[in-house]
Amino acid sequence: MNTVSVDFFENTAPIVVTYLSQEFTEALKTRIRNQSRLSMVRTDADAAFQGRITGYSITPTAVQGNDRAGLNRLTITVTVTYKNRLDPKLNFEQSFSRFEDFSTTAGPIQAQEPQLIKSINDMLTEDIFNRAFANW
């Protein structure tokens, strides 16, 4: 295998963060560039990633005495289709989901969101990379 393509991951989650699609797509490309010797191409790749962001949610995980969330959880879910033209037995379509817990005492979600998204993207792209290429 010499080449790989990564299509843009559209955000179809009920809650849309405007920059999430771009951030995730670039994080996956960066992971592949940094952990493999594959060349990134737009078409006719030996392997191809497609998908969409299907979930983005913030839920309380710990409630304080005043009925306020002391700890919240940001969860991001992506559905990935991987096609390996050289070995179709390795093709898959799978959902990946990761989360990060955060406290509202550290500031509003808007202030914490970029770092939380980066951390979750790191975990998601590692899971996706390992699922696609762990048999190397």
Automatic annotation (TrEMBL):
InterPro entries: LPS_assembly_LptE
Superkingdom assignment: Bacteria
Database matches in Pfam families: LptE (PF04390)
Name this polypeptide is given: LptE family protein
